[in-house]
Design a protein that fits this description.
- The protein is mainly alpha-helical.
- Helices cover 48% and strands 0% of the residues.
- The chain has four helices and no strands.
- It starts with a helix and ends with a helix.
- Keywords: ATP-binding, Helicase, Hydrolase, Nucleotide-binding, Nucleus.
Length: 71
């Protein structure tokens, strides 16, 4: 949580697996998960996908999670 808050305050790099990103940006869970979700979806100024083929299909859950990022 400290790393995510640091990323939200200033420009930084956060490496995260696709599945963990999908899970953390899901709409379910407790209050601290809501804060994590907001940080991941509203604060990135750049998103780099290491394996673009993973998120290529619109039916893919990773694709759906990445579409929610507000850039």
């Amino acid at each position: 949580m400290a790393k995510l808050k640091s990323c939200a305050k200033s420009k930084s790099v956060l490496g995260i697996r696709y599945d963990l990103f999908r899970i953390l940006t899901g709409e379910y869970g407790e209050a601290n998960k809501k804060e994590i979700r907001e940080i991941l979806l509203k604060f990135p100024s750049l998103v780099v996908c290491k394996e673009g083929h993973t998120a290529r299909y619109e039916n893919n859950l990773v694709w759906k999670a990445l579409k929610k990022v507000e850039i």
